[in-house]
Design brief:
This protein is mainly alpha-helical. The protein has a domain of about 120 residues. It has 7 helices and no strands. The radius of gyration is 17 Å and the shape is globular. The N and C termini lie far apart (about 40 Å).
Length: about 190
């Protein structure tokens, strides 16, 4: 898929994830519409999309779900999960940790760190990557319908990418992590 097509898909996907239509946008097909328009037959088939509701609206049990669950768009942070040193952080957060068999569960969607690649993580989630990781045994608790057979892309869902891995100016190795911004427009 070309970078231009991915950019279109990302824009529509992020709009859907941003909640411009509430729960219907998350549980329905709208978040994957752009990907289907760009590459027919690639949208996951598990409806309603409980994996997206869990990831983006209620939190993942044992990771960032609160004791009283209210579906809402907010950044959840489980402070009981130990932070991971910057050098060991996976840019794909929890998704990357699931893929690599790692233990970095401090990243997005459990909070957000400068190194977390939110667009790539969201693309993987929207196109069913978490259903592939959920497996046939409902390992992540997304429901039995969220399984590898519901994801036409299969493991390819993990490879979706916006073509940008890091900021133009590299992050600093310690707090505040964000480097000096590029100069703005110069006035004469």
């Amino acid at each position: 898929m070309s970078p231009a097509k991915i950019a279109i898909a990302v824009a529509v996907t992020m709009q859907a994830i941003a909640g411009t239509g509430g729960m219907k946008k998350v549980t329905g097909t709208s978040s994957a519409v752009a990907m289907v328009a760009v590459s027919p037959g690639t949208a996951p088939t598990n409806f309603p999309r409980t994996d997206l509701v869990t990831t983006f609206l209620t939190g993942i049990a044992g990771v960032n779900q609160m004791s009283t669950v209210t579906a809402s768009e907010m950044l959840r942070l489980n402070t009981g999960i130990a932070p991971v040193p910057f050098a060991n952080q996976n840019r794909l957060g929890i998704v990357g940790s699931l893929l690599s068999g790692g233990s970095d569960f401090a990243g997005f969607p459990n909070g957000r760190r400068p190194k977390d690649d939110i667009v790539d993580i969201s693309l993987v989630a929207v196109m069913g990557g978490l259903c592939v990781a959920n497996g046939n045994a409902d390992a992540l608790g997304f429901g039995a319908a969220c399984n590898p057979s519901a994801v036409p892309l299969g493991n390819t869902a993990f490879s979706l990418h916006d073509g940008v891995d890091q900021a133009v100016v590299p992050f600093l190795p310690a707090f505040p992590y964000l480097n000096t911004p590029n100069a703005g427009a110069l006035s004469n």
